[in-house]
Amino acid sequence: MALSKLENLYRQMILEHAAHPHHHGSLKKTSQKIELRNPTCGDVLTLEVELKDGKVADIAFAGSGCTISQASASMMTDEVIGKTPAQIAKMVVAFSEMVTGKETDETEELLGDATILAGVAQFPARIKCATLAWKAVYQAVKADDSKATLGLLHHDV
After folding, report:
1. How far apart, in whole angstroms, are the C-alpha atoms of residue 52 and residue 157?
2. What's the confidence (pLDDT) of residue 14?
3. In sequence order, which ranges of 3-149 are alpha helices (DSSP H)?
4. Which of 137, 99, 104 is closest to 118 using CA atoms?
5. What is the pTM for the complete model shown?
6. Which of 69, 66, 56 is nearest to 131 (CA)?
7. CATH number at residue 47
8. Which residues form the NIF system FeS cluster assembly NifU N-terminal domain (predicted)?
9. Domain count, the chain
10. Residues lower than pLDDT 70 in the chain
11. Nearest-angstrom CA–CA distance, 57 and 44
12. In Å, how far from its chain's centre is CA 139?
């Protein structure tokens, strides 16, 4: 079966984010730094976050991994800038639910362009790849907001 034009566009966006990731590198000023690994496929992610006035002021990631993990990290960094830890916690839960096939009415509003990764639900072996960066950002900011509660996070790394 041939891919529809929309599926082709989504695939191209994922490949573009993986080939030219946004916010890739390191920060000069870091509030939090975390490294996570996905032993299943070898993805490694180092995430640096600068928090200012209770929000993510800047973010960067480095590491190596598959196309899905790199694209997901790139999209995540775009979406969390300017967000509070509590907002990020909601986003992480929504992303985790989305990639396991449980989208809600708020999914697109919460995740923006990252919703193009919803197709990961069709490939269970890739769920850990897609959620690695989202778990990292949650862990990086949760210490700064005692009100943030994660709820369900599927396939913990």
Report:
1. 28
2. 92
3. 5-19, 67-80, 85-98, 107-111, 127-142
4. 99
5. 0.86
6. 69
7. 3.90.1010.10
8. 10-129
9. 1
10. 1-3, 6, 143-157
11. 23
12. 12
